[in-house]
Specification:
Layout lengths: L8 H7 L2 H27 L4 H23 L11 H23 L4 H8 L2 H11 L8 H16 L10 H24 L5 H19 L13 E3 L8 E3 H23 L5 H8 L1 H14 L5 H18 L3
Antiparallel strand pairs: 1-2
Length: 316
């Protein structure tokens, strides 16, 4: 339970500062966006997408665990009946979302990968209507139509999909696992606070990857290498371990905590919509750093997809 949640209602209302919440969500989206390019540079060093996912999951877990132990250790108590749900959140959500995202950006431009991944909220809304039989506003159908139109422009469907086919497939897989991440989280958050849920999610993701690819087979020589930052920063070199540290701290732990913190001041829906600045900023960073460019049609398609996602976010 958060500190704000245990305050009297009138105190909570006074404590809410929407401007702070929006700034936190915007900063989180920006950090996630920059992390896309940092991760792509790491992948170019020779580390596989599976290993990079493993590093991010374990590093994220250790950082979140330290924060929870220092601030609110009692929230780590867990009922055995929660374990299956939290494990599903960790493996299907945390582990697979990151894996498919890393696989996608290794083959596609970062902005394109994120635009497709961010179809997750639309998938959640469709699932809620047809499977959970929730009431969903009619704007969902407008959102679905806009998303399909925008997506055809983003993937250049009229030219026979000129993008890497596997990259598009991985991005779509990332969208579906992102939807699963949100559905698992939505249910789990009925019984526990967001930070401890993230901690357990990264724990189960770490366990999963440690079983799939044990640590003793990790290529420890790769983090010690010094690599070029590529693109317009090709003259600058950094050790891979430093880029990994950025990915774990500023690309994972800090933005996740900012998103959680923003929800003390604004609703989860608004925080999610503001954080959708990620594809926009990611495209700008990738252009300035790696010289990745989108065509005019892709930019228009991206704007349509983002509009569709905003409508889907507000449809439930």
């Amino acid at each position: 339970m958060s500190d704000v949640a245990i305050l009297p209602l009138e105190t909570v209302e006074r404590a809410r500062r929407p401007a702070v919440g929006y700034l936190m969500a915007l900063t989180a989206g920006t950090l996630f966006a920059i992390n896309g390019t940092v991760s792509k540079v790491i992948l170019e060093s020779g580390l596989s997408s599976l290993r990079l996912t493993e590093v991010r999951c374990i590093g994220g877990f250790l950082g979140l665990l330290a924060i929870v132990l220092l601030t609110r250790p009692r929230t780590l108590r867990i009922d055995w009946r929660e374990l299956l749900l939290v494990a599903g959140f960790g493996v299907f959500g945390v582990a697979f979302v990151q894996l498919f995202y890393f696989l996608a950006i290794h083959r596609l431009q970062i902005g394109v990968s994120l635009l497709i991944q961010y179809l997750g909220p639309l998938i959640v809304a469709v699932f809620a209507h047809f499977v959970l039989h929730e009431h969903v506003r009619r704007r969902l159908w407008v959102a679905l139509a806009l998303a399909l139109i925008g997506l055809t422009l983003v993937v250049d469907l009229w030219s026979g999909v000129s993008l890497d086919g596997l990259g598009v497939l991985f991005s779509l897989c990332s969208a579906f696992t992102f939807a699963g991440y949100m559905l698992f989280a939505e249910r789990a958050l009925r019984r526990r606070d967001p930070i401890s849920l993230l901690c357990y999610g990264f724990l189960f993701a770490s366990i999963f990857w440690s079983l799939v690819q044990p640590w003793w087979s990790f290529p420890f020589e790769v983090p010690r290498q010094t690599v070029s930052l590529l693109g317009h920063l090709s003259d600058t070199n950094l050790p891979v371990w430093a880029l990994m540290a950025w990915m774990i701290v500023l690309g994972t732990i800090v933005p996740f905590l900012l998103i959680v913190g923003s929800m003390r001041h604004i609703s989860a829906t608004r925080a999610g919509i503001v954080a959708m600045v990620e594809p926009v900023v990611a495209s700008a960073v990738a252009y300035a750093w790696l010289n990745e460019t989108l065509s005019g049609a892709q930019l228009v398609g991206g704007a349509i997809v983002l509009l569709a996602i905003v409508l889907a976010q507000s449809a439930r």
